[in-house]
């Protein structure tokens, strides 16, 4: 019985172990890319009345890589009310740095709404059409069936309509730019685009192929198309060239590579090559200097020896906010140190690659390799790597790019799967498109280049590279 009680107590003790508020805060901040971190800090300033932005403080002697120490030594976890000091500074001397960013263009949905505004529609028709626009996917397709849209309009928007009106409004949207928008499948998307082209014999043939022989076209059954349509190989080639110039994803023309939620990509790290040596910095960004609002500190000081209930309650509130501020500022510091240590470990591991950006120098590397070098948990490394970018002297890359598994080549040396995929892509690019290489032939070609790969591995890598099987790569 005694042993049973001890075991029960041990289990209860284990179950009560939880992450501290500081650990939770740090984990959340580590996941954020640099521009979202700045927004998060602004949000904290708005929500925590204890924190103020000290805009008047001169930001001098600030190291561009290290945030200042957070001093909260005067703050004690007892009933006494000391004076408080809370300060963090992550500014460089230039208050707003110039970022290299990828800007997102005009919103896809907004562009369509602007065009809708020029149509002579009733208020009811406008609302139906606007709802359809809001139902389009990022690539410009409408993947909802018409009946579901009618139901959604009634239940979600309170708009009574029918399938005919929804279809009528969809046809109007399908006349908008970019051509092909509002299509319900690839076939309709391509037909919407080709109808706006000058109706030359090649375009007429292309339209017939897309309309009547779409299955044969996607399957590259060229002989069937020629025999059933009666067109020659030259005419089929000319028609195919028209089709291949069409855009299968019209929504991507205007904006949403990153969707409306993400407006830009800002590098979290910058790597430069100076006199043959790699130098890593974390860009300075606009994190405001934080300080305690004196008004709230005074409330605590006044409440120190007071028995008034209201003041005691105010003191508890402010103390809670001060705790939150302390954890937040310390989490920012820990985030910085964690990101910098992780990125430096990646650079050290892939040193030869980062000198020139040659993919053949990219060694096999998994999260565990960096976790062992830094002493961080694999889940922490994963959070650092996710949604982070580095600007190098040879381009801007997501951190995920540098991670890949490895396999052995003919000499028994380990090479990264990225190198293998690059070699596979080169084999496919160099093949005779009239007689594409089968997977077995690709195995032989990779062996000739010095890589040991099985047929199933070729098939897997081909799928990951979005390379179709041999028959679908065939060209006239």
Your description of this structure?
This protein has a 4-stranded mixed beta sheet with strand order 3-2-5-6. A two-stranded antiparallel sheet has the order 1-4. Mean pLDDT is 76; it is low at 6-16, 56-106 and 253-263. The radius of gyration is 31 Å and the shape is flat. It is built from 20 helices and 8 strands. The N and C termini lie far apart (82 Å). A hairpin with a 5-residue loop joins β7 (406-408) and β8. Among the domains are: 21-103 and 265-355 and 373-381, no CATH class; 406-473, Orthogonal Bundle (Arc Repressor Mutant, subunit A). The longest helix is centred in the C-terminal third of the chain and has 41 residues, at 309-349. α2 packs across α14, α4 packs antiparallel against α5 (123-134) and α16 (367-374) crosses α17 (378-385). Helices cover 49% and strands 7% of the residues. 26% of the residues are buried. By secondary structure, it is of the alpha+beta class.
The number of distinct helices, counting runs of at least 4 residues, comes to 20
Main sheet specs: 4 strands, mixed
Arithmetic mean of pLDDT: 76
Let me know the number of strands.
Answer: 8
Give the ordered list of helices and strands.
Answer: HHHEHHHHHHHHHEEEHHHHHEEEEHHH
- Indicate the radius of gyration in whole angstroms: 31 Å
- Percent range of helical residues: 40-55%
Spatial order of strands in the largest sheet = 3-2-5-6
Shape: flat
What percentage of the residues does DSSP assign to strands (E)?
5-15%
Poorly predicted ranges (pLDDT <50, ≥5 residues)? 6-16, 56-106, 253-263
Spatial gap, N to C terminus: 82 Å
The class by helix and strand makeup works out as alpha+beta
């Amino acid at each position: 019985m005694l042993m049973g009680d001890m075991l029960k107590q041990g289990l209860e003790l284990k179950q009560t172990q939880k992450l501290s508020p500081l650990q939770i805060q740090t984990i959340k901040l580590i996941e954020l890319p640099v521009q979202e971190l700045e927004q998060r800090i602004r949000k904290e300033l708005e929500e925590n009345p204890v924190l103020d932005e000290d805009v008047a403080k001169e930001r001098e002697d600030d190291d561009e890589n290290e945030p200042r120490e957070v001093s909260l030594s005067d703050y004690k976890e007892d009933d006494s009310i000391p004076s408080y000091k809370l300060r963090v500074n992550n500014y460089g001397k230039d208050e707003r740095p110039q970022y290299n960013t990828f800007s997102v263009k005009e919103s896809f949905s907004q562009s369509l709404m602007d065009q809708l505004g020029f149509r002579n529609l009733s208020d009811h028709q406008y609302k139906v059409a606007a709802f359809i626009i809001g139902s389009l996917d990022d690539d410009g397709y409408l993947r909802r069936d018409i009946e579901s849209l009618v139901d959604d309009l009634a239940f979600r928007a309170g708009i009574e309509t029918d399938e005919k009106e929804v279809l009528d409004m969809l046809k109007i949207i399908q006349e908008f730019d970019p051509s092909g928008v509002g299509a319900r499948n690839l076939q309709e998307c391509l037909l919407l685009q080709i109808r706006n082209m000058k109706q030359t014999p090649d375009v007429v043939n292309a339209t017939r192929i897309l309309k009547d022989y779409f299955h044969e076209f996607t399957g590259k059954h060229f002989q069937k198309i020629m025999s059933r349509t009666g067109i020659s190989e030259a005419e089929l080639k000319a028609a195919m060239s028209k089709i291949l110039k069409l855009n299968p994803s019209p929504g991507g023309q205007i904006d949403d590579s990153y969707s409306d939620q993400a407006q830009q990509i800002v590098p979290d790290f910058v790597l430069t090559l100076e006199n043959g040596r790699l130098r890593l910095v974390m860009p300075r960004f606009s994190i405001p200097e934080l300080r305690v609002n004196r008004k709230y500190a005074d409330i605590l000081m006044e409440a120190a020896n007071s028995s008034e209930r209201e003041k005691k309650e105010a003191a508890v509130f402010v103390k809670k906010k001060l705790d939150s501020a302390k954890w937040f500022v310390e989490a920012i510091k820990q985030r910085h140190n964690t990101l910098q240590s992780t990125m430096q470990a990646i650079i050290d591991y892939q040193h030869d690659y980062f000198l020139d950006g040659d993919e053949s120098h990219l060694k096999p590397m998994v999260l565990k390799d960096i976790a062992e070098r830094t002493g961080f948990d694999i889940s922490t490394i994963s959070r650092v790597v996710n949604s982070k970018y580095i600007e190098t002297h040879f381009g801007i890359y997501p951190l995920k790019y540098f991670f890949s598994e490895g396999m052995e080549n003919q000499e028994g040396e380990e090479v990264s799967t990225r190198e293998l995929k690059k070699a596979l892509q080169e084999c496919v690019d160099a093949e005779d498109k009239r007689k594409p290489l089968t997977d077995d032939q690709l195995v032989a070609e990779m062996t000739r280049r010095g890589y040991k790969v099985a047929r199933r591995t070729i098939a897997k890598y081909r799928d990951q590279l979005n390379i179709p099987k041999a028959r679908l790569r065939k060209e006239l």
